[in-house]
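Protocol step 6 of 9: fold each sequence in the batch and record its structure tokens directly after the sequence line. For illustration, a two-sequence batch is reproduced in full.

Sequence one:
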Amino acid sequence: MKKKQKVDIGISLSLIFISIIILILPLFNFNNVSFLTFILYLLYTIIGTIKFFLIKDSKDYEGLHIVLSSIIPLIITVIIKPETPRQIALILGIWLILMSITKLKKIDYYHDRHDRMWKVRTFILGLFILTGILSSVNLAFANEFQIVIFGFLTLIHGILELFDPILKTLINHA
């Protein structure tokens, strides 16, 4: 297994761990969704930075694109301080669009190299967009429910990101 695949698995597992923490938050009467969105975009920025520096030798700039895709909603969250579900959904939509562009760039990379992974990544992108749209639509409920939605969105994103390195490893060992 290459270093990049190990880093990708570590990043995916950290996203899954973060999502479990988010899902537990309502049990401790945490219901500040504005602060949670700030922390979530900050964590995605930190994770993208770590990913970029760990695998920059492989000339894969996906980590840098994740940083750029996450820092814009982070700045918007700091400036606006979203309080209504509509504002939170709008910022989430901006993040989803930027992350989708990042994932589309990765699909193009695989397609240009005639790698079969582009089909898998296209399917993963479709699931990511569908999950994001459903999450944005369902943000109109109580704060505890909004936190659970963010937890499930992060969990699904972590699971979807886990497919790429595992499939690459299975294809290389087949």
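Sequence two, same batch, same settings:
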Amino acid sequence: MAEKTCCICWKNLNIRSMRRHFSVTLTGWTVLILAAWNALRLWTSLTWSGVLAEYPAQLPMTVSKVMTAFWLVGGLVLFWSIWQKKPWSVKLLIGMAAGYTVWYWSEYFLFQSPKPNALFTVIVNLVLLVIIFFATRSLSREAYERNIEHPKTE
């Protein structure tokens, strides 16, 4: 009678293949933190909409809620795709980084009257873009190595 295994066979588990590059892990956590920030923004705008409506805002509340929900869902999909090592996560990461940067800076220049902490904002944005640049190289390398290990058969 054959034995049943209900857990992972540790002898055949390749620990090295489970490891991600540091920049990929850092990017995943950064994406998750930005998604949490957008979740907080969405919750705040939904919960405090009565109070926020009393104060004049250049950006309409509906637009703010829709854009925040869009970036929240996009960030969660991106985090999931990075963690699951999906091959299309590299393109999604680049697109989301470019889109989020354009959206943030357009909101910053068009809708914020006093522009506080411009130097800090530029430095943080550049640091995040450098992390994303190295992560895309690591993600591309992982996808390339995965294709070598498991080539498609025709």
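Proceed to step 7 once all outputs are recorded. Observation for sequence two: The radius of gyration is 21 Å.
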